[in-house]
Amino acid sequence: EQAASEGIDWKCHDPSQLEDSAWRLSMLSQLNAAIDAGDLWVAYQPKYDVATRMIVGAEALARWTHPDKGPIRPDIFIGAAEQSNRIEKLTLHVLEDAVTTTIAMRAHVPDFVMAVNLSAKLLESTRIVEQVRDILARHGLPASGLILELTETAALGSDSQSLSTLHALRGLGLGVAIDDYGTGMSTLDYLKRVPATEIKIDRSFVQSLDGQENDRLLVSSTIQLAHLLGLKVVAEGVERREALDILQRMGCDLAQGYLLSHPVAKQILLAKVDPTPLRSAA
Ligand code: C2E
Ligand code: MG
Ligand code: MG
Ligand code: MG
């Protein structure tokens, strides 16, 4: 299982992918076709209840395996897709797969909740509200089974159109998470304006939890603040047992990270909760 999940995190990528702008352009022109060809797929990283250590949800993470170039880093093709008009098609593709997966997971974990990353760019139009409602309705998933994750650094707080789109999405009954919480700017402003249901503490605070007294203070006070505001807290990037134990003592609700599971293919996620994993792999 571990071997099967490795290789999905693309740790050994080609660093020249970052600089080569000709490559970026040609990659972008291939993105639509890649989605149609199935080269763009979705990995799932389980989210665990810190107290029970059971799987209660997962985060959908886009993966692109290029036929010649091999795996392309998400931060590269997501960024490129955001700068063009490709992000909508990509997001709907991920949402469709994620909702299907959620239905399958709910056969084993009835309250399973799926998180999908949403580019703030898609909040600039209200179209996304109908699109999300339509996908949920077609698959029969209640909105409470879906969380949309927003990266804090996106310039959201000042844009009233984006905020009203976000309120409309919340109005459907789904959850909203502030991703990478603690990085970027205007943290308190964000908490005040964004109709969030959950914050995800950035892994830069989580990784050194067992060594850094400062990080412990920042994380524990953040958990307390979030709970006072009625928000759930997810710790991302949990890589060590010691960090997970500290998070449990602090009352953190959920955790994700390589210690618990790497992002894995849908079949492997299912096998983690399906008592007859061979049947679903067949
Ligand atoms: P994110 O949403 O903050 O996702 C968490 C990232 O941390 C993922 O990287 C995940 O593989 C990685 N990670 C998880 N556990 C650990 C750990 O224990 N240690 C370390 N070092 N890393 C860990 P990934 O998959 O490369 O994704 C990078 C970013 O790309 C995501 O950050 C998200 O912002 C974006 N992204 C991925 N898929 C989508 C998508 O479908 N739509 C949008 N808009 N953005 C996406
Ligand atoms: Mg995320
Ligand atoms: Mg994150
Ligand atoms: Mg991130």
TrEMBL record:
Q: What sequence ranges are listed for the domain EAL?
A: 24-277
- The yes or no answer to whether the keyword Membrane is present is yes
Keywords linked to the UniProt accession:
Membrane, Transmembrane, Transmembrane helix
What is the designated name of this protein? EAL domain-containing protein (Putative c-di-GMP-specific phosphodiesterase class I)/CHASE2 domain-containing sensor protein
Q: Which organism is it from?
A: Sphingomonas jejuensis
